[in-house]
Amino acid sequence: MEKDQDKILREVTDSEYKYGFVSDIEMDMLPKGLNEDVIREISKRKEEPEYMLEFRLKAFRKWQEMEMPHWAHLQIPEIDFQDIIYYASPKKKEGPKSLDEVDPELLKTFEKLGIPLEEQERLAGVAVDAIVDSVSVKTTFQDTLAELGIIFCSISEAIHNHPDLVKKYLGSVVPYNDNYYAALNAAVFSDGSFCYIPKGVRSPMELSSYFRINAANTGQFERTLIIAEEDSYVSYLEGCTAPMRDENQLHAAVVEIIALENAEVKYSTVQNWYPGDKDGKGGIFNFVTKRGICKGDHSKISWTQVETGSAITWKYPSTILKGDHSTAEFYSVAVTNNFQQADTGTKMIHLGKHTKSTIVSKGISAGQSNNSYRGLVKVQKGALNARNFSQCDSLLIGDQCGAHTFPYLEVGNKTAVVEHEATTSKIGEDQIFYLNQRGISTEDAIGMIVNGYAREVLNQLPMEFAVEAQKLLQISLEGSVG
Amino acid sequence: MLKIKNLHANIEGKEILKGIDLEVRPGEVHAIMGPNGSGKSTLASAIVGRDYVEITEGDILYMGESILEMPPEERALKGIFLSFQYPVEIPGVSMVNFLRAAINEQRKYRGLDPMSPSDFLKLMREKKKLVGIDSALTNRSVNEGFSGGEKKKNEIFQMAMLEPKLSILDETDSGLDIDALRVVAQGVNALKRPDSSTIVITHYQRLLNYIVPDFVHVLYKGRIIRSGGKELALELEEKGYDWLKEEYENSLNGAL
Ligand SMILES: Nc1ncnc2c1ncn2[C@@H]1O[C@H](COP(=O)(O)OP(=O)(O)OP(=O)(O)O)[C@@H](O)[C@H]1O
Ligand SMILES: [Mg+2]
Asked: pTM (2 decimals)?
């Protein structure tokens, strides 16, 4: 298993610059604004089949009747949806000409994370005239998976090449009319990942959208669909630890996971979109709908997220536990600093008998930020012997930030056992000093304490991701203690 | 090694140290005794640079250099170590990670490469034996759920790992059982080098039977009111502090 992964990694890294380079790109961009014509045009430019266009239009019509949700503990500035470009071929955007034009703070962070130069340019959106042909990279990677029958491609490709699967599952967990942002996504989604694990197959490697280099700039309205057939297993990694600059202020992604009988899906996210500057200017608004369904008996879905970026985060990866004996987990670390706001948590909907869910949420707030946990545990009448355990901890750094916990509980039968624990603590001067006295700087001390605090969650991440995430937590909190 | 000159210090605006003079030369062991609340821990805090201790007058020289402006981590890197009276718990941070960070910071400061994991583990094994600390403890998070005595033992274990030049032991003996006290004291002695010095803050003669001081100082109301040889500790053990307090108060009255 380890070996396969090494092989693929090597293939990808070796082949990265060997293949063709693309230059001389023509502009490919729709004007600002959203209406049915724009939707038709998006679908046309992507050469989509009719069924997709219908899906998009249906969603758009619904979205027009909907209103932006206001229940979250967030202050969201007015968003003018007619002032957004909904289709722009990602590679053609104006960016800095070279790294010299990029924010030095950002470059420092890249250095600390040990990101190679070429990667830095890509992440900073530098307009390099030689663009890595990611299709080639991807192909090598896909061959190895294809031998096992695993499909891992962009959702656009899947729409063309696997219409039966897409028709069957797209919108089946997050319906086009689920919520305001999900409807918007369904109408205009740009691209995303598609993953299909056939019956009885364990994916030999972590599937990562990180390798799909071309996906880096399509994050605005990303759409991901993961289908795990009976007895299959996959671990999927989304995002990367480097702070991503993106001119798109609004992000509204949708992720759907389907786990059939005895299947297991592990979905790990590291989200580090641009959080805005120290004074709260700029930054990404991240409104995400992520939901999985444990459709078959004995299936399992496990969400792990490390959220450090974005100016505003609105995100509740949820699981519907439909199959009997199915299991769901949600492990989350959310860090907010400066003027960031996060309202994040999960929903666990117990429908099947003997279903079990675990929630571990660690909120860390610093600066003048606001960090809320919002979670719903719902046990339906028929979900006999359902179990839930929730642990929601908040850590405060400094005294100008806020931490809030909103646990909701709806229990429909008497056999359910639901436990909720919550704590709020302040990072201790004593702890920092103790580490100082052993020669560790305050910055490193905070990193250590915070990582210790979040350890239960970080332990859930795949190894190489965990190491990066640890560094990331520390970097995100830099300057938070005087 | 350490020279404290007319040190005055406030905590929250209240003067706690009222003119301390103390010189510790290489190789010496100094014991500081004195009633509760007299300022012993405050003095230790001032030396290691806790920010709530505000120095209002005087100076602290370490290796000939004033350290008042030096951040605490740099003082530590230069070889000052405090065995805390109340060690804190740091949940989730493993002893191994913590000590590796500490050791490697020190090595970096001296221009050395990080220690290899195998050398580090070897060093840990060696020092664990020296201070008689159990692996069950060093495999846990820093001080998390340690008993009082275990925490103290862990302080000395860290001292053994870091090999400081100047060690300040703040009531390391309190909380240790008789056997542990002996093992820990032997460990401290084994770590002694001709160029290292120790300040032992204690209430009891017992520790001083093992770690024999060259000088004993009595701190009272923020001043050193008596200094002497190791016999002074025996005398205090026998007679308590009242006679010294009385002498001191009388001398004050006389001065008025
Ligand atoms: N952080 C603090 N805030 C306020 N007052 C403090 C603080 N630390 C110490 N003090 C006060 O300073 C005085 C000296 O305390 P210190 O801890 O130095 O005494 P000590 O000699 O070490 O006593 P003990 O033998 O009980 O350990 C006490 O009156 C104490 O209450
Ligand atoms: Mg004390």
From this structure: 0.81
